Amino acid sequence: MRIDLHTHSDRSDGTDHPRDLVAYAHTVGIDVLAITDHDTTVGWADALQAAAGAGIGLVPGIEISCEHRGMGMHLLAYLPDPTYEPLRAELRRVLDGRASRLPATLELLRDLGIDITPADVHAAAGPAEATGRPHVADAMIAKGIVANRDQAFARYLSAGRPAYVQRYAADLVSMIGVVADAGGVTVLAHPWARRGPSAVDSDALAALRDHGLIGLEADHQGHDPQMRAALHGIAADLGLIATGSSDYHGSGKLDCNLGCNTTAPDQFDRLLDAARAAAAKAGRGAEAAL
Questions:
Q1: Can you tell me the distance from the alpha carbon of 235 to that of 246, in angstroms, rounded to the nearest whole number?
Q2: Which of 117, 123, 154, 231 yields a CA-CA distance of 20 to 30 A from 177?
Q3: pTM for the whole thing?
Q4: For the segment 201-244, what is each residue's pLDDT rounded down to a tens digit?
Q5: Using an 8 Å Cβ cutoff, are 94 and 170 in contact?
Q6: 3-state SS string over 103-133?
Q7: Could you give the CA distance from residue 205 to residue 218 in angstroms, rounded to a whole number?
Q8: Beta partners for 242?
């Protein structure tokens, strides 16, 4: 069984419609797919309908922009009730932070002699609910300023580069609790992909587990073999679930082909068991809300 628990559609910064994402997953032999757009659930309905027609499993999820100890981190939330108001309110606050960052980013680019307008970015974003730096990058690509998103981030948009602007992100510990109260479960996305093990060590991960985190995304393109082995070891020591996934973005992200990393079936079963327990405790969850 091939299980990919981290993908993006064009409702955030991917390039495939949710229905096309599911159809492609079916074509390449994915048995279970999670749709985890940034800070939004708007792609769930189309993805669920397509998955039912294709005969593959669909796990509704969200990749939530968070902050912990002054560092940006991403939290994968699976099967929360999308109508739970505290979750909806926090996601809206995160999305508003994305939107408010855009004018400052474009002003910094103009100071560098790069003329990208809000209309350029919105044209690049299309139907996306979560508009962000990848869409600025796409607008730069369309104007021939950079060749791809990786180049745009490396030269201009990443932290420490000349057009980077800080934005609001949810508190990681608080968000773990909000998702649990919404009947969902949480996995820390690519924990060592950007800063290595110094970003969040085993002690910090143990503390997050004690706050309700159930898993780590160990197998990810941003982790080398040594990191993957270490994260699997930490997960085993702490009783956490170890997942693997592609972080697929369509043509928007290089070297992240659908299914390039997958989650072991026994780990997926543990995640589903945890989600059922969370939904029962909260009296809500995605299955009850959809």
A1: 19
A2: 231
A3: 0.93
A4: 999 999 999 999 999 999 999 999 999 999 999 999 999 999 99
A5: yes
A6: HHHHHHHHHCCCCCCHHHHHHHHCCCCCCCH
A7: 13
A8: 216
